[in-house]
Structure formats: C-alpha cells, structure tokens
C-alpha cells in the first residue's frame, strides 16, 4: 500500500477529501498529486503534519503491512530529508554529505539501517546525552 493509499484511507475515515485535508494542513495539491501519480513519500516534516492531523504515528503512514519495519526507501528518504534540513538550519554544518567526516558517514550508515524500534532507542539515548551535556555546561 502506497503512502497516498494510506492518506486517502485516513481522509475517508475522517470524512474529508484528500484535497481538503491537504489544504487544511498547508500542503500543496501538487505534492498530493506526486504522492498519487509517482507513489512518492513526503519528507519528514510533511509526514509529521499528516500524522498529527490524523492523530496517528508516522509509522502508521509508512510501515509495510507486517508492521515490523519501515520501508527501506522511505527510511532513507526521511534521513536524507532530515540531514538536508539540519544542514540548512545549522550554521556550523556547511559540508555536503560527500565532505562529511568518517565518523559522520559511519553514523549516517548505521542510522539508515535501523528498525523503527532501534531508532527510537538511539534517539532517546541521544536526548539523554544532550540533557546531561546541558547540565554539565551549566555547572561550568
């Protein structure tokens, strides 16, 4: 089942048209057409909007029918999108992926191959390290 098929099903359940739902979320009709015609999956920020609008988890929009793993291409698209957005927002990160350090490349490779459950654990631990780092910096 494609992302658009899931989107359309959620629209029917909510009693809205795909066009109406997209308009309410600030998503262009062109984007919806790409989902439908090309079977594409939107970037992470749009997935988040759609998930919030329908009150579902992002996994519900992109998980294969057996529910075990994200579709590889979708996961890669999400990480590519996140990497691109972070690179644009963070003034300290101005290197293209080909210029990333070996450690950054290794981390990127690892993240691209995680299951959703493993990814959640990694993110939780990273958030814990970030909080600990903030506390340490406040003490200095």
- pLDDT averaged residue by residue: 75
The total of beta strands comes to: 0
Instruction: Please count the helical segments.
Output: 8
Distance between the termini: 53 Å
Largest sheet: none
Strand content: under 5%
In terms of structural class, how would the helical and strand content be classed? mainly alpha
Cα-atom radius of gyration: 18 Å
Identify the overall geometry.
elongated
Which residues sit in consecutive blocks of at least 5 with pLDDT less than 50?
A: 64-71, 89-95
Order of helices and strands: HHHHHHHH
Helix content: over 70%
Layout of SSEs?
Layout: H1 3-14, H2 18-25, H3 29-38, H4 44-54, H5 58-62, H6 72-89, H7 102-112, H8 116-139
Textual characterization of the structure:
The radius of gyration is 18 Å and the shape is elongated. The chain contains 8 helices and no strands. It is mainly alpha-helical and 140 residues long. 71% of the residues lie in helices and 0% in strands. The model is unreliable at 64-71 and 89-95 (pLDDT under 50). The protein has helices at residues 3-14, 18-25, 29-38, 44-54, 58-62, 72-89, 102-112, 116-139. It starts with a helix and ends with a helix.
């Amino acid at each position: 089942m494609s992302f658009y098929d899931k989107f359309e099903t959620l629209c029917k359940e909510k009693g809205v048209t795909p066009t109406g739902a997209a308009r309410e979320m600030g998503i262009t009709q062109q984007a919806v057409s790409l989902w439908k015609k090309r079977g594409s999956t939107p970037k992470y920020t749009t997935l988040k909007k759609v998930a919030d609008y329908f009150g579902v988890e992002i996994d519900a929009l992109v998980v294969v029918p057996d529910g075990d793993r994200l579709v590889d291409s979708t996961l890669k698209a999400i990480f590519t999108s996140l990497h691109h957005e972070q690179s644009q927002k963070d003034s300290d990160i101005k290197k293209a992926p080909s210029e990333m350090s070996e450690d950054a490349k290794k981390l990127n490779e690892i993240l691209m191959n995680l299951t959703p459950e493993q990814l959640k654990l990694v993110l939780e631990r990273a958030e814990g390290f970030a909080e600990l780092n903030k506390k340490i910096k406040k003490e200095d």
